[in-house]
Design goal:
With 159 residues, the protein is mainly beta. It has one domain. It contains two helices and 19 strands. The termini are far apart.
Length: 159
């Protein structure tokens, strides 16, 4: 697997559908995905794979910054940004793992939602914020006080 590197500026979302050529997907430090339409996701991973995303750049979209539909992992590096009008990162269809040293934000809902459970590690200097909660597991199994801790702490959180 060769993977793909996203560099330059994209004003529409990018779809990952071919794991043979697109896994893992890396957004370079010079990469900018800034969806300018009224709806849409910045980076969309189809059910073709549990995707691996490495972000060193910026991903912004009106719906979700990163949306993975078969589980997967997201590494958001120092100074990197993932932002969505609703959710910053939304991982469905399987377990998800998010490691954050940059900024992840969801304006109206969660910074991170892991529908199939998984783990969130917010490293020193990392910020996870959301309009309703910072991180949300499926069925909201944890009390709101734990969600608040994710936004303020370098302590790993397992959801």
């Amino acid at each position: 697997m060769t993977g793909t590197t996203i560099a330059g500026t994209y004003l529409t979302g990018i779809t990952l559908s071919n794991p043979a050529t697109q896994y893992p997907a890396t957004i370079a430090g010079t990469g900018l995905i800034d969806v300018t339409s009224a709806t849409g996701n910045g980076l969309y991973g189809t059910t073709a794979a549990a995707w691996g995303i490495y972000n060193l750049g910026t991903v912004m979209a009106p719906t979700r910054g990163v949306f993975l539909t078969a589980g997967g992992i997201v590494h958001n590096e120092t100074a990197a940004l993932i932002s969505g009008g609703y959710r910053g990162i939304d991982i469905t269809g399987g377990a998800g793992t998010v490691t954050n040293a940059g900024s992840i934000a969801g304006s109206k809902q969660q910074g991170i939602r892991l529908e199939g459970g998984g783990a969130v590690s917010n490293l020193a200097g990392g910020s996870i914020t959301g309009g309703s909660t910072a991180a949300l597991p499926a069925a909201a199994l944890m009390p709101p006080s734990i969600f608040a801790r994710v936004a303020r702490s370098a302590t790993p959180l397992v959801v």
